[in-house]
């Protein structure tokens, strides 16, 4: 039996669900389920979004199944306490704090409970087609998204700027700064002649004030997808010809789901401010 805990925002949920799908294909003889219990009392994002967005119905672990190999927490508050005070059980597989790739995840048979974000495509690259078929967005219906989609071509470029909760955060600040975006735009312009840039951000005003001076193509600031429709930004990113991403799981997936066979993805070579961090981006992406 294998159980994957799912918790976090949309991008992290997608990484966890991708691991769930990978485990199901890797261990077809085992019962693979998900644990959603920590979403109770979790108010940081929009709940278990992937079920609503992608119409997913994963197999859910029962309380007794969770207790057999890990600890059951009825809500997010109890999990925050329990993860700090309760000892690790042998059947629990907690992601490395240094984000090191753990090859045993896909090799070790038997009971395991997976707690982490698993932000590494090596955990699921062998079932890429399954994941692409699973993470299919519903069609656009509103005028703004449809109009922008119509303008996109193979030389369109998405830019994701994540500020808000990243500003002042020691783990994430100082990575995707203005110099990063300047270099990323120059780099992608050395490969292609961008026809347009689509800018996605939780701080559009900062983008207007800082990006325009070194962008030569038309710019479209996407500021109309919010709340439960914010996933539409990721969907639009995946429709662009090429992607400049932030150190964010949201734009990571926007780029990964982009099925342009000639796409260029520009990403920060440093993902998080951790010493000896083992995080690894897809090898085919350009890191600066």
TrEMBL record:
Gene Ontology BP, a term: carbohydrate metabolic process
GO cellular component: membrane
Coiled coil: none
Domain of life, source organism: Bacteria
UniProt keywords, alphabetically: Glycosyltransferase, Transferase
InterPro entries to which the protein is assigned, alphabetical: Glyco_trans_11
Gene Ontology molecular function: any one: galactoside 2-alpha-L-fucosyltransferase activity
Keyword ATP-binding recorded: no
Pfam families on file: Glyco_transf_11
CDD domains: Fut1_Fut2_like
Residues of the signal peptide: none
Protein name: Glycosyl transferase family 11
């Amino acid at each position: 039996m294998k159980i994957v805990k799912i918790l976090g925002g949309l991008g992290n949920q997608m990484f966890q669900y991708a691991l769930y799908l990978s485990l199901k294909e890797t261990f077809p003889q085992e019962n693979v389920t998900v644990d959603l219990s920590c979403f109770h009392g979790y108010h940081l994002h929009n709940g278990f979004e992937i079920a609503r967005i992608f119409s997913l119905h994963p197999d859910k672990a029962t309380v007794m199944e969770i207790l057999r190999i890990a600890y059951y927490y009825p809500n997010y508050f109890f999990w925050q306490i329990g993860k700090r005070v309760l000892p690790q059980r042998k059947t629990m597989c907690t992601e490395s704090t240094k984000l090191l790739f753990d090859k045993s995840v896909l090799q070790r048979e038997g009971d395991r409970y997976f707690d982490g974000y698993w932000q590494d495509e090596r955990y699921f690259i062998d079932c890429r087609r399954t994941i692409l078929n699973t993470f299919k967005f519903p069609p656009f219906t509103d005028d703004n998204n449809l109009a922008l989609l119509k303008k996109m071509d193979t030389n369109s470029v998405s830019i994701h700027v994540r500020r808000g909760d990243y500003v002042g955060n020691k783990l994430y600040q100082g990575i995707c700064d203005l110099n990063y975006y300047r270099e990323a735009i120059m780099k992608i312009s050395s490969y292609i002649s961008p026809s347009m840039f689509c800018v996605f951000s939780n701080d559009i005003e900062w983008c207007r004030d800082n990006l325009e001076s070194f962008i030569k193509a038309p710019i479209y600031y996407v500021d109309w997808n919010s709340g439960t429709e914010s996933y539409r930004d990721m969907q639009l990113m995946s429709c662009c010809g090429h992607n400049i991403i932030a150190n964010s799981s949201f734009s990571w997936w926007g780029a990964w789901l982009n099925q342009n066979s000639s796409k260029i993805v520009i990403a920060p070579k440093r993902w998080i401010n951790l010493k000896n961090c083992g995080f690894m981006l897809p090898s085919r992406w350009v890191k600066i």
